[in-house]
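User: Show me a protein chain along with its predicted structure.
Assistant: Here is one chain, sequence first, then structure tokens.
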Amino acid sequence: MVVADLHVHTTNSDGTLSLVGVVDAARAAGLEAVAVTDHDRLHPDLDAPVVDREGLTVVHGVELRVESEAGLVDLLGYGVRPTGDLVAELDRLQADRVARGRALVELVEAHLGIDLDLSVEPGFGRPDLARAVAAHPETDYTVQGVFDDLIGDDGPLYVAREVPSFERGRRLLAAACDLVGLAHPLRYTDPAAALSLVADLDAVEVHYPYGDDPDLAPVRAAVERHGLLATGGSDAHGDTLGQAGLSAEAWDRVRRRLSDPDSAAR
């Protein structure tokens, strides 16, 4: 039974739910804890590493994309106490995200011959663009179809971002967070190469909605080999939480490594 979903996005980046909405959805799903892990952005309404919202434990986190020897990968920082260096880097990344978002919107509008009337603000991400295209009356795209055919990493309209190196991102997060882990290792083109990075981390995301019958053996082996915490979450961008995450026992192990664990007591 999932009690903690430690990978959730809000409208602060490219999710559809506000922080209040996430709390409501988590409680409706019977969860005890969530981690808000917005892309390259801290949530302004979370003022401590771990907070209580109506009896729900909310962990302040962040998801940071970095460039590594395994290609682009995502790091998850949990229990954030912002440092000046992390804030400065996130501000730079948000400026880059806005510039990239505007370029993507222009490319998609020109390619499809439509006007999306879409405002690109800090926190904007490709899911925002994909949802706008899918909702437009003159297209028959699904959200996934927009990624598959247009703006995915291998798509014809893809625009690259300027992201930090793995080592710089790891150092920034380690200085500001209680835990730093690798997100969804089996999603990368070369999972083995991605898992080779975890020796310098605290955790790796084991539980994730990969699809039917994923082979988690390499991820579990990395946990054992490097003494890592097993984390997990749904990577929710919508209103369905708890599709993947941690059992009570696994959450308790993570909780004990977070700042002020008594505030996260069940």
